Amino acid sequence: MEESFEMVKLAAASGCTDLVATPHASSRFAFDEARVTEAFHELSTLSCGLITLHRGCDCHLNFHNLQDALAHPAKYSINNNRYLLVELPDLLSVTAVREQLQALLNARTVPIITHPERNFSLHANTDQIKMWVADGCLVQVTGQSFSGRFGSAAKDAVEALMDCDLVHFVASDAHDCLNRPPSLSEAYEYVRARWGDARARALFIDNPAAVINDAPVVHSPRPKRMLKFFSFGAK
């Protein structure tokens, strides 16, 4: 809890006003709803006045989670609403994944596919992501992917997704205070400098606000041009 509160303070200091807590639900990390609820309320109390916390889950797409999410959608979704963060398996069957995502869409749950730029199975072909977005899914990338934190392949992939207008959110995907901190200021400046102010506002402010308020997400505006050279500035 102490480390979680330090992360909240770092997020607030970097300019974040709202933070969605997303504990994993996977074969490695079991999703204990009672413990998650207890921890969320405790951290919310500590964070009062610094930042507004929202509850969510990074739900790994497997058979058990899919069936449970279909039966109890509010258990995993952000603020118990229509939006669900979905992490795809490292080794995936395109046909099976599309069927699973479609099952969620048919149940009026909107899957937000998390960090596809870090999934090596998707690096060779963005057409699959285009297909899922056309079906109604949304895409969230990790801010540190722009800086090369996850390697050059992830950096190239996230820029390709941006160029194809396939990104709806940029998130910190924070895990700690040092290596993966909850700061988005550097990523914001990167996106703003290369793809423009309107695109940055959509991905970092407007679209996330729509999700936490259970409102429709307005698709991000396409850039009119790309700048070959860019620089960072203070936010």
Plain-language structure description:
The chain has 235 residues and is α/β, with parallel strands linked by helices. It has a domain at 58-212: TIM Barrel (Alpha-Beta Barrel), CATH 3.20.20.140. The protein contains 9 helices and 8 strands. It has helices at residues 2-13, 33-47, 63-71, 73-76, 94-106, 127-135, 152-163, 185-195, 197-212, and strands spanning 18-21, 24-25, 52-55, 58-60, 83-87, 110-114, 138-142, 169-171. Helix 8 packs across helix 9. The chain is globular, with a radius of gyration of 17 Å.
CATH class of the domain at 58-212: Alpha Beta
Assigned CATH architecture of the domain at 58-212: Alpha-Beta Barrel
Enumerate the strands of the largest sheet in spatial order, edge to edge or round the barrel: 2-4-5-6-7-8
Structural class of the secondary structure composition? alpha/beta
Secondary structure: number of strands:
8
Average pLDDT: 89
Q: What would you call the shape?
A: globular
By CATH, the topology of the domain at 58-212 is TIM Barrel
CA radius of gyration: 17 Å
Please report the number of helical segments: 9
Taking pLDDT < 50 over at least 5 consecutive residues as the criterion, the unreliable ranges are 223-235
First and last CA, distance: 29 Å
Strand/helix succession? HEEHEEHHEHEHEHEHH
> What proportion of the residues form beta strands (DSSP E)?
5-15%
Largest sheet: 6 strands, parallel
CATH superfamily of the domain at 58-212: Metal-dependent hydrolases
- Helix fraction? 40-55%
